[in-house]
Every structure is written in C-alpha cells, then in structure tokens.
Amino acid sequence: MAAAMGASAGANAAVELYNEDGTSFSVDGYFNAFYVNRDAKVSDTRNSDVKMGFLPNTIGFNFSKEVGDLTMGGRSSFWSTINDSLQSPTDTAIDVRQLYATVDGSFGQVLIGKDFGLYARSNIFLDEILMGFGSPGAATGVSFGNIRTGYPYPNPSAQITYRSPDMGGLKVAAGIFEPADTTPGAQSEQSAPRFEAEVTYSADLSGLALTGWVNGRHQSSENATTEIDSQGIGYGLKAAAAGFSLTASGFTSEGDAPVLIVDGALPSEEDADGYLVQASYTLGSNRFVASYGETDSDQADFETENTSLAVFHDVNSNFKLVAEYNMFEQDVKSSGATAVDADTIALGAVVMF
C-alpha cells in the first residue's frame, strides 16, 4: 500500500533495474479501472461509467546512492487519469505529486522537494478502502475515497521535511511547506511558511499490532484588512490481530476548508471536524471492509456522511479484484438542503508492480 501511494519511505514493491556499487534504480507502477454504476437521487439520474478508482494510475522512479555515511535518494512519480478519455481522446491529464530528493544518515532523513503533506497523512494512507473507489468527488468524475468524509487531503506540496530514525517504534516528522494565500488582495503576505508535523508509534503486543498517530498543520496569511490563521489536528489508532483490524481516526480544524488547502480567499476562521471508523477481516486471499465517516464544516458549509462496504480479492501478489458499494450524502449546512445523495456500485481490477 505504501508503494501504491508512493510514500516517502519508498516503493517496496518496485522492480529493481540497477543495483551496483551502492547505486540503485527501480520503477514501480499502479494501474486500475472500475465499472461504476451510480444512482444520483437529487438529479434523479443513473449513470454507468468506466473510471479509475480513488488512486490514479501511477508510475514512479526511485534512485538511491551511498556516499560515505550518507545515502542520497530521490523519487519522481507521475499520476494519470483515465476519466477524461472522451474529453481528451488522445491525450490525458498527468500530474506530478512527488518530485523530491532525500538524504539519509544516522540522524534520520531530510527530504527536499514536492511530496504529500504530513497533516492527515496517516489518516489517508491507512484508509482500508484506499485501493477502492469511495465517495463521489469532483465534476471530472474523480472519486474522493473518504476525503471530506472523515479526513482532508494531505496536499502534495513543496517542502523541506525532517524524519527521525525509528526510536523503538516511535517516529517523528516535521517540516516547512509552501503556505497558501488565503487572503488575496492588497498587501497579501505569508510572512512564515506553513508548518506540518506527524508523530507515529507502532508496537506489537503478543500478536496485537497497534499503530497510533497525531499530526497537525498551522499557517497564517494576511492582507491590508484581514488575517486568517489556518490550523488542524489529525489523529488515529489502528489495531490488528488474527485477521481482524479496527481503525478509528479523526480531525478538527479552523480557518481551513477540510478538503484540500489551496490559494483562495477564506472569509473567516470557521471550524470543521470529522471522523472515520473502519473494520476489516482478512480470510485467505479475501479482505472484507466496512467503513463509515462524517465531516461537519462551518468553513465550507457542508455536512457529509459516507458508508462503504467492500471486498478485496488477491488473485496474486500483483493482481487484485475489488467490489464496493458506496452510499454518500452531502447537505448544505446553512440551509439543510440536500446537495448530493448517491449510491454507487464499483467493480474494479488493480494491477501493480
């Protein structure tokens, strides 16, 4: 799963192309497609589509070189959609979510470049339906998984981040990030970078595997008349034993629309919070998942809830089949009007290397 998301730890399922004299180069890939049938009750329409899942199709390149006591590394990954095949028949949208270098030593690791953020990072990376479909998302047909129904998106951002060595299961990461301009206008400025951090702890207690995490973000933006402080805290705990897994996570924020952080005016510092609870059971090559999440946002003026039931079947270590039923609702908080009420069936296949 870390390989599929291209986590900074590296792509552990990658195909090694070169490894000699302390220098290595590898490639990893993730490809998927889903048949999607959606019943949208507000518009009273039903549509069938062939789309990618929550994770886009991805190819990543990884580099590592040992020089004395240091190891230099790097990763670039290219994320592509298949959802625009009729809008761009011979072209497709490609974005670069990771383009960074790393320096590792006994002190830990320093990352420079563009990578996913630290705030809400484990919330999304440990989502049980990460390789599924999830809730309806953007108008382009991109699914959102549990983004804005339990956690915000850890935006890929320009950053300089430090990660500590593993200290008996405890890991700490902290970094400075490109700040968002949330107060565009006369004399708009962000006098300090955006700060993000995450602390994780993992332990195995007689067969009970536990993973806990806390992460956060803070930034300020101001212009001649307005100052907006944006901050959030994410947290979670996952416990797994004998094929069973239980995960509970959540977040709370203010001055932050709980979807993704981008340049754009925010009129005030309103609150938002959400949570996600999931249970899974693995039996042989099958994993069964039940997931429920909610988000309540004064800042973005919505209330959402999302329920997913999914089955993941491993044909082999590189080929996975997915069946998912998703129920998503979104209301306008200020008026109570229903904006979205959709039930989705998604049947997909995933190939990865």
Description:
This protein has a 16-stranded antiparallel barrel with strand order 2-4-5-6-7-8-9-10-11-12-13-14-15-16-17-18. It is mostly beta strands and 353 residues long. The protein is globular and about 65 Å long. The N terminus is likely disordered. It has one domain: Porin.
What are its keywords?
353 residues, 16-stranded antiparallel beta barrel, 2 helices, Porin, 18 strands
Relative helix content: under 10%
Strand count: 18
How far apart the termini lie comes to 11 Å
Give the second-level CATH assignment, the architecture: Beta Barrel
CATH superfamily: Porin
Shape: globular
Secondary-structure topology with pairs:
Layout: H1 2-5, E1 15-20, E2 23-40, E3 45-51, E4 57-67, E5 70-80, E6 94-105, E7 108-115, H2 121-125, E8 157-163, E9 170-177, E10 194-205, E11 208-222, E12 227-241, E13 244-254, E14 271-283, E15 286-297, E16 302-316, E17 319-332, E18 338-352
Antiparallel strand pairs: 1-2, 2-3, 2-4, 2-18, 4-5, 5-6, 6-7, 7-8, 8-9, 9-10, 10-11, 11-12, 12-13, 13-14, 14-15, 15-16, 16-17, 17-18
Structure described in brief:
The protein has helices at 2-5, 121-125, and strands spanning 15-20, 23-40, 45-51, 57-67, 70-80, 94-105, 108-115, 157-163, 170-177, 194-205, 208-222, 227-241, 244-254, 271-283, 286-297, 302-316, 319-332, 338-352. The protein is mainly β and 353 residues long. Strands 2-4-5-6-7-8-9-10-11-12-13-14-15-16-17-18 form a 16-stranded antiparallel beta barrel.
